[in-house]
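4.2 Preliminary Data

To establish feasibility before requesting continued support, the project team ran the inverse folding procedure on a target of 342 residues. The structure was first converted into the token representation described in Section 3, and no sequence information of any kind was made available to the design step. The complete token record follows.
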């Protein structure tokens, strides 16, 4: 049910340090009664975000919200420390005093890949195709053996998760079995964005798609969609920036993938329920939370559900970033594993 209380919408924008690495969050608020957000902001999830990233709020935020955020380890953006960049990021061109970078700089055209890098990313995309087609495990294992980067990162991921087994994973077939097809598919999608070390955009694009994917999955659930549609929501968010990543029209990148019509229509035309959810999230990314409120009403999604989804998605994104970099999963490990069961 849609609440009549004017609870403000919240949204998290990922900030990069000068080098382009995503290590900060900036929280945005829409209009409304700040008191309605205090129960959500007073929980452990908000504090956990500040344990992983530098977390900021705008100095003009409501006093009630500032007090709640400060208690959770968040701080006001220091004057002169934040710069918006919408073109290619060049640290030497940033104003003096810039510590954090906001904006759409990661949407710029990619640098030209070397032969080895293009092959690695191409093999990751080929593996996505195999998993989407429910290929035999032996076919997937054979492709892993041809790409040391993918195989190394797969074993690193499974060992870092532990999967509750208390033993180390040492073979590809064992790793594939322990991880499961749904988690393998999600990890491969993420690895597409992490596969090029020379592309300064990669880490930020990974953070953005992780936020999109988890948020769309949760919003699909909040909108009453079934489990399969929730998984399609995740895929829609994850694939939505593939064209930006490859520097190609999205339709060309998607052509070899066996995607369902609902995901295809959402990605290429913003059609259907999934397309509406993607438009909703893109509107929030642009900072137009007033328009988001109107779209939520049309979709029959409560403001409280949207806010809870954004908070969860930010935590899931942090866990994803740690997982792809081989760091301990911490408190987000349970969220990552929980995705397998929806």
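Position-by-position output of the design step:
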């Amino acid at each position: 049910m849609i609440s009549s209380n004017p609870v403000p919408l919240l949204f998290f924008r990922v900030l990069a340090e000068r080098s382009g690495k995503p290590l900060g969050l900036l929280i945005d608020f829409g209009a409304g009664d700040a008191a309605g957000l205090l129960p959500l902001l007073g929980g452990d999830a908000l504090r956990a975000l500040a344990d992983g990233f530098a977390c900021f709020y705008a100095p003009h935020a409501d006093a009630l919200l500032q007090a709640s955020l400060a208690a959770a380890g968040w701080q006001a953006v220091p004057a002169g420390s934040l710069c918006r960049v919408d073109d290619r990021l060049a640290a030497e061109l940033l104003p003096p005093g810039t510590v954090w970078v906001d904006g759409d700089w990661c949407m710029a055209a990619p640098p030209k890949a070397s032969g080895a890098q293009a092959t690695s990313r191409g093999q990751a995309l080929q593996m996505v195709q195999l998993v989407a087609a429910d290929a035999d495990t032996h076919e997937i294992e054979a492709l892993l053996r041809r790409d040391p980067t993918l195989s190394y990162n797969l074993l690193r991921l499974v060992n870092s998760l532990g999967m509750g087994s208390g033993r180390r994973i040492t073979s590809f077939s064992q790793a594939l079995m322990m991880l499961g097809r749904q988690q393998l598919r999600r990890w491969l999608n993420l690895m597409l964005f992490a596969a090029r070390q020379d592309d300064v955009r990669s880490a930020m694009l990974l953070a953005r798609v992780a936020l999109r994917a988890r948020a769309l999955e949760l919003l699909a659930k909040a909108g009453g969609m079934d489990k399969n549609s929730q998984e399609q929501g995740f895929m829609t968010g994850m694939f939505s920036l593939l064209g930006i990543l490859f520097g190609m029209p999205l339709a060309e990148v998607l052509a070899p993938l066996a995607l369902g019509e609902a995901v295809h229509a959402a990605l290429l035309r913003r059609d259907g329920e999934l397309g509406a959810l993607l438009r909703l999230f893109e509107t929030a990314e642009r900072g137009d939370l007033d328009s988001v409120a109107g779209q939520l009403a049309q979709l029959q999604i409560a403001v409280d559900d949207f806010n809870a989804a954004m908070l969860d998605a930010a935590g899931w994104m942090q866990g994803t970033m740690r997982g792809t970099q081989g760091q301990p999963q911490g408190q987000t490990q349970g969220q990552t594993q929980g995705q397998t069961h929806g």
